[in-house]
Amino acid sequence: METETKHDQILKYIQNLDTGSRISVRQTAKNLNVSEGTAYRAIKDAEIQGFVSTVERVGTIRIEKKQKQNIEKLTFDSVVKIVDGQVLGGKSGLSETLNHFVIGAMELNAMKRYIGPNDLMIAGNRDTVHRYALTEGAAVLITGGFEASDEIRSLADRLQLPVISTSYDTFTVAAKINRAIYDQLIKKEIVHVSDILIPLPKTHFLLGEDPPARWHELNRLTSHSRFPVVDKKMKVVGIVAMKDVMAHSEAGFIHEVMTPEPLTVSPTTSVAAAAHRMIWEGIECLPVVDGQKHLLGIITRRDVLKALQMVQQQPQMGETVEDLVSASLKDLSEDDRYAFSFSVSPQMTDYLGFLSYGIMTSMITAVGRRVLSHLKKGDLVADNLSFYFFKPVQIEQTVTVLPKVLEKTRRNGKLDIELFVDGQICGKALLTVQFIDRF
Known about the structure:
Helix 11 packs across helix 12 (about 300-315). The protein folds into four domains: about 5-60, Arc Repressor Mutant, subunit A (Orthogonal Bundle), CATH 1.10.10.10; about 75-190, Udp-n-acetylmuramoylalanyl-d-glutamate--2,6- Diaminopimelate Ligase, Chain: A, domain 1, CATH 3.40.1390; about 195-310, CBS-domain, CATH 3.10.580; about 320-435, Hotdog Thioesterase (Thiol Ester Dehydrase, Chain A, Roll). It is of the alpha+beta class. Strands 16-17-19-20-21-18 form a six-stranded antiparallel β-sheet. A five-stranded mixed β-sheet has the order 4-8-7-6-5, sandwiched between helices. It has 14 helices and 21 strands. It is globular and about 80 Å long.
């Protein structure tokens, strides 16, 4: 029998606290008779897991863990679309998610150990395999354009398990489904505004008809200086800050001093895009609205920075093109002289066998990120990239990248980047970025 660790005991203790309970390292350590270091690490782990949150000027509190949709799972209905399929039976089960897919390319006895509930059996015209998969709780995808027998269709309807037919062969179907799952894994890593927004009713707001005294009241209550302004239907019509109220002390209503038609974001906006907008416009917070501009909550620079830092600490579930590009870079830098190299693999080329322009721009951005991150801690977003190819780069050639920092301020950076193949210049770029500073 495994002994429960102190770390696990603290996590269980925190999970059993009422929502809204304050959590302190010292008190937790005292209550459970553990060191403050052990308590601190467990509380941070609880925060990563999503049932603890650190709220500015409030402290660390127990929150209700937000159950995110398991988007790396595909529904059987999604599979139909992916393979251009036709549903032959079991339509009522299309909304269910598939666990994993099994390719029925072996004898039935050999594949029995792999089939389970909510799996997807991919097979050709093999009636016995179709029947066994359905009785085990798995859906069936028939490849090669074959049909299902009346018995199989009837069994699928009775068990509410889809039977799908596609004209694609088994290899193509497996590749398409695997690609879709992989894409979903990558999407799962992208943090959206909905993951970090401060929702209603925790978001404080003002009505356009409120007097400025209401701003002072909320300021004393929350210590915040900016609030969204809404109409009676909760549509965002403006935003008001301290400077607005102080500059118009004689005003009678908030709508007289607010900034109308403020920038907003939707719940599906990525945190990175929201960060870029905040930096570009020099604003501290953004109202979050739905499609009809109704207020859903608000995000602040602090929320965005914390989310970006958290993403960097998470393991990657799926590699993007940028991840693959960055992994292929070799750092040859010495002292203050920056230098990188990479070899052109088949995946980096266009249909002519030359280095792809898109891959090259990703490579330049990756180089710029490495150089500037070395000089200044924090993340950055690319503002502008001008790039010129002087000669095509072929497959399996080695490219040397020599970046030079032209400018670095607290908010901006600029690099001149030259690319060489066999000692001859093949490309040149000018990259400008904005830093996501510590807010």
